[in-house]
């Protein structure tokens, strides 16, 4: 954790220096939840939206719908991959921009369709994949034929980071969802990973060949989780973290199995849980902004000034500094355990040929 503290405190607020060259891959597609939502929830009926101050206080365009003070993990990854601008949300992406990728992530969304619906509407993973099919038809129209479009899509990176809400906004909310009565923790992980695998296979059918799958982080150490469950003197909620571990173990096995099944594709597993090792209270377990009763920032309230010294922005989501650290280790592993079988930089560099 000392290393994490050092990286967060030393993180610069300036944009990365990116060489003026073509991106390492032709496009970058993102599937996920509020950790990487960049505006898809702005115009839907839900409490899970972040298009108001102080969200975006450190982002060049202000409150765009990102659930943090500045940039997200995928914003930093897009920079690492050589893109000049952040990948746009599905709801507003138009024209030539779609050729460089789309961000489908939606706040409160999960692997399961019902997850997070007590907060209002969201775009679940299955619907995100359906939206990608719409994008494909537009790319084919711009490329002129299926073969040229397929060659383009085969070389892209597909980034999938979802699953936290299936626990925090489903399984561990028995007043709203029945899943904890229907499944043991182990059975629920199996159910989630089976559904996840089906979504990945569908993406493979749409041309995805370079796929990064991100595990669930230490959701038992999130301030909102600790508030809801009560810590009783402990630093984190152990049964919630244990659920994440069950999920991650099966998700990592899924990646291994799919690498054998989909022989002309390559999947990597990103160890989000392992990157969070240590005590989050070192930088303060509270979020930087003033939280509402549901854990999001109170509108227009002035947040803390020392944002680079906090792990959490609100009661759920990390600060830009935390996002930067995770993105750096996702792109180029700091430890061998950060990714398996290799990191995102190596995935992007793979030449899988024409399929």
TrEMBL record:
One of its GO terms (cellular component) is extracellular region. Keywords: Hydrolase, Lipid degradation, Lipid metabolism, Secreted, Signal. Residues 1-20 form the signal peptide. It comes from Linum tenue. Its main location: secreted. One of its GO terms (biological process) is lipid catabolic process. It is found in: Secreted. Pfam families: Lipase_GDSL. InterPro entries: GDSL, GDSL_esterase/lipase, SGNH_hydro_sf, SGNH_plant_lipase-like. Belongs to the 'GDSL' lipolytic enzyme family. This is Uncharacterized protein. It comes from the Eukaryota. One of its GO terms (molecular function) is hydrolase activity, acting on ester bonds.
């Amino acid at each position: 954790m000392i290393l994490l503290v050092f990286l967060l405190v030393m993180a610069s607020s300036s944009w990365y220096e990116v060489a003026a060259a073509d991106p390492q891959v032709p496009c970058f597609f993102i599937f996920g939840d509020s950790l990487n939502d960049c505006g898809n929830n702005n115009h839907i009926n839900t409490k899970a939206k972040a298009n108001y101050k102080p969200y975006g206080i450190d982002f060049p365009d202000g409150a765009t719908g990102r659930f943090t003070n500045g940039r997200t993990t995928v914003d930093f990854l897009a920079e690492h991959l050589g893109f000049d601008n952040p990948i746009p949300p599905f709801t507003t992406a138009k024209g030539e921009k779609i050729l460089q990728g789309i961000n489908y992530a939606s706040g409160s969304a999960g692997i399961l369709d019902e997850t997070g619906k007590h907060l209002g509407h969201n775009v679940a993973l299955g619907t995100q994949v359906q939206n990608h099919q719409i994008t494909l038809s537009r790319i084919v129209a711009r490329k002129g034929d299926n073969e040229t479009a397929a060659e383009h899509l085969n070389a892209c990176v597909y980034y999938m980071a979802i699953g936290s809400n299936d626990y925090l906004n489903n399984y561990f909310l028995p007043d709203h969802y029945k899943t904890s009565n229907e499944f043991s923790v182990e059975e629920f992980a199996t159910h989630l990973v089976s559904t996840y695998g089906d979504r990945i296979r569908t993406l493979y059918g749409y041309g995805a060949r370079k796929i990064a799958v991100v595990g669930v982080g230490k959701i038992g150490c999130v301030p909102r989780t600790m508030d809801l469950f009560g810590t009783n003197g402990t630093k984190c909620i152990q049964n919630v973290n244990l659920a994440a571990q069950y999920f991650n173990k099966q998700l990592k096995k899924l990646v291994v199995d799919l690498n054998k099944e989909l022989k002309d594709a390559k999947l990597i597993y990103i160890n989000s849980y392992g990157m969070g090792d240590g005590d989050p209270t070192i930088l303060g377990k509270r979020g930087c902004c003033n939280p509402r009763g549901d854990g999001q920032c109170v509108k227009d309230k002035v947040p803390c000034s020392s944002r680079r010294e906090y792990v959490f922005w609100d009661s759920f989501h990390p600060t830009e500094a935390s996002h930067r650290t995770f993105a750096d280790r996702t792109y180029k592993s700091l430890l061998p355990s950060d990714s398996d079988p290799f990191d995102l930089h190596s995935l992007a560099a793979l030449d899988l040929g024409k399929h």
